[in-house]
Amino acid sequence: MGASESYDDYDAGTGLLITCWTLTGVAVLVIFLRLIAKNKIGNLNIDDAVMVFALITLIIGDGLVTAGVHYGLGRHASILDHGPEVKAVMYYCISQSFGIVASTIGRMAFIMFLARLFPSSSVTRTVLWALFAIQPIVNIIAIFLMFLQCHGEIPPLFDFTLPQDNCMPLSVQINYAYFQGCFNTVSDLFLAAFPTYIFWSLKLRLRVKVALLCLLSLGIFAMAASIVKTVELNTIAHTEDPTVDQVLLLRWVYIEATIVLITSSIPCLRPLFVAMSKNFSSYPRQTYEMDGSYGHGYGRSRSSKYHAQDRRQRGDGDSERVILENSNGGITKHVTVTVQDEALAI
């Protein structure tokens, strides 16, 4: 009796929703900070708009996952009525497509971001744009195979009681899905590893160089998620309970998508990190007149308190200091100080 109740009460949908919406919330926050950071340095570009579009696609997909869970996705098909079961499978397929599209657009946005760091004639930029063009082709074909596997007949995709005679062998979709997963894994590895090769030769401080490489190499986590998702593809081939068995695959589709969006946007937050580090490290500093009084205790004229230095800030790192001596032949000295920050505005 207890085992039967446990079977009937089983619900993997709740965990799926928690995973999807929690990660999406993090993605929303990171992309919001990305826009603030790039607006702060006046560097908003088309890649930011593409990333926002990827986020919108992800949120729509989360909504479809929620609808699928409402109809029984995550619960055993045997305890569902036929109508809700069909709708649960339908929302599973559609939401999976949105997850694939979101991760694809996210990678494309990151490639656009990286491509702008290189000269238009460089081989690296050509390779990046080639990868940019291949991304949608490889991933959209996977979606077409999912929805066209029955030669355009949509109902048999969701209703397993209908004849499947006109559908292509499931092995075709699975084999291509493995290829797609391997392609995305290699793409994530390339996008995470090649900055190390390219930027290591730049003449930057080691601290700045390591920080940049760490930020640009976060895609290694997206690669790991892609590997796990690819491994979970075997659930498609060996499923007797589609509303439960494929939940884990769908979860990793959305984990991969959100990690792609998050890790692709974190490098753009560096201006905020730099500004925060400056604020934390800044503290009030005493100013001293350049008359030899600092560190010696002599040479301070009585009129110096009336003719203190006049310092006018003219931007980040530029100042003009005017020192006036209390004499008829006063001397005015202009000192221009330029401070260059080694931080890249990326």
From TrEMBL:
Location comes to: Membrane
The UniProt record lists the keyword Kinase: no
Compositional bias (Basic and acidic residues) spans?
307-320
Q: Which residues form the Rhodopsin domain?
A: 33-274
Segments spanning the bilayer are 12-37, 49-69, 89-115, 127-148, 178-198, 210-228, 248-269
Q: Which residues form a coiled coil?
A: none
**Keywords per UniProt:** Membrane, Transmembrane, Transmembrane helix
**Region of interest called Disordered, as start-end residue ranges on this chain:** 299-320
Highest taxon in the source lineage: Eukaryota
Q: Does the keyword Hydrolase apply?
A: no
**A cellular component annotation (GO) from this entry:** membrane
Q: How does it sit in the membrane?
A: Multi-pass membrane protein
**What family is reported?**
Belongs to the SAT4 family.
- The protein here is known as Rhodopsin domain-containing protein
Name the species this protein comes from.
Penicillium angulare
Which lineage? Eukaryota, Fungi, Dikarya, Ascomycota, Pezizomycotina
